[in-house]
Amino acid sequence: MAADKQDKVLNVPNTGKVPTLRFPEFSGEYEITRIGKLTNKVGSGVTPKGGESVYTSEGHPFVRSQNVGNGQMFLDDIAYIDEDTHNKQIATEIKHGDVLLNITGASIGRCCVASDFVVGGNVNQHVCIVRPTKDVTSYYLCSLLLSDKGQKQIDSFQAGGNRQGLNFEQIKSFKFSIPKLSEQMKVSELLTLVDERITTQIRIIEDLKSERKYLLEQLFCLPNERAPKLRLKGMTGEWQKVKLCDIVDRVTEKNKTNTCNRVLTIAAQYGLIDQQEFFNKQIASSDLTTYYLLHKGDFAYNKSYSGDYSWGAVKRLDKYDEGVLSSLYICFRPNENVDSDFLCHYFESTKWYRGISEISGEGARNHGLLNMSVDDYFNTFHRIPTQREQKAVANVLNALVDKIDIEIEILKKLQKQKSYLLKEMFI
Q1: Is CB count within 10 Å lower at the N or C end of the chain?
Q2: Which tens digit of pLDDT belongs to each residue from 327-351?
Q3: How confident is the model at residue 2 (pLDDT cuts 50, 70, 90)?
């Protein structure tokens, strides 16, 4: 009996005889159970008839998949429904301690504990309410779903890895090992602190991005303006009205020898990036001799429009020394009349759109492309200050971008820390 007891492998984190990551005051086996036995409710809501047209500016919060993050709620764009609509969906009213789980689409598997702000609200059909019993804490249940084992079980029900959707019976069938309530509470306290720090870090980043967006609109001026709304200290005088062709030179060099095989694409968040890196595959053919050859510091304009880029996107090649880009793009490099960093920030503002909107026809917009020739593009009008002011504006915005990048790295470390805890403290 003694030998049997000594050789027994306990059902604890990491499946070792002694767990590598466990609070020292706890011991003993975890109990294997299913979500169905740990919950009083597993169910989602519906989108009200009329969709977004019935949303109100106040009333009962209406939680959609974009409001559910990995341990955090995002409430910036929360929708609301009125009392009558809420009463028609009373079965999906959010209660204190509910866990909200995304069950469809690209965000499937994201979950969080409902914040006090949304208690008394409702969820749509893409968000499932998982309401725990007294045998499990809300944060522990949420963490189980976010853990490696939880996400693997979610993935196991997605045909071919397509991540299409989860039904309620599948969720109830999820199997986990859980400790006693006292240990759950201890683990939950730790993870709650980590989540709060992540939420704070996200808010820091969003505030910095909002500041940058504000400065981008204030520090530049439209072609018909003589000076921007916000001027840096010591800067005076009118900004000069120029054509784009006065400050940049078109790039038309081709990859004739086919020696460069890094095919670039324009991605909103990443700029000019390797196609292979972005899509995880190369879409272009092996013959790249007709592609433009770009060098670090060159710009490219994509006149297709979507999302926030209603007049197309202009990005600079910063990540690589060179790359090739389809001749469907308009490529150029700054000349001695303009600071490259200044131009880079300018194209992230909305002020340059005016020149495009004045010469671009509306006829082709329904096909996803602006009706505009290369000559038209280079003949658009813009306003620039002296080289001294260009550099000053660029320095202010560069410093802010650097600060955002630092805060993003901090966020990644916090998320990595949480990922480690979810991997090592759960089985």
Answers
A1: N
A2: 989 999 999 999 999 999 999 998 9
A3: very low
Reading the block at residue 23, the tokens are 């609070």
CB atoms within 10 A of CB 361: 10
Q: What is the pLDDT of residues 302-327, one digit of tens each?
A: 887 665 666 788 999 999 999 999 99
What is each CA distance from 18 to 9, 33, 216, 273, 365, in whole angstroms?
A: 9, 22, 56, 46, 64
Dump pLDDT digits (tens) for 147-203.
Answer: 999 999 999 887 655 557 899 999 999 999 999 999 999 999 999 999 999 999 999
Domains in the chain and their CATH numbers?
16-181 (3.90.220.20), 240-384 (3.90.220.20)
Specify the pLDDT at position 166. Answer: 93
Query: Could you write out the three-class secondary structure of 352-381?
Result: CHHHHHHHCECCCHHHCECECCHHHHHCCE
Residues 31-77: pLDDT tens digits? Answer: 999 999 999 999 999 988 888 888 999 999 999 999 999 999 999 88
Task: Indicate the pTM of the whole model.
Answer: 0.83
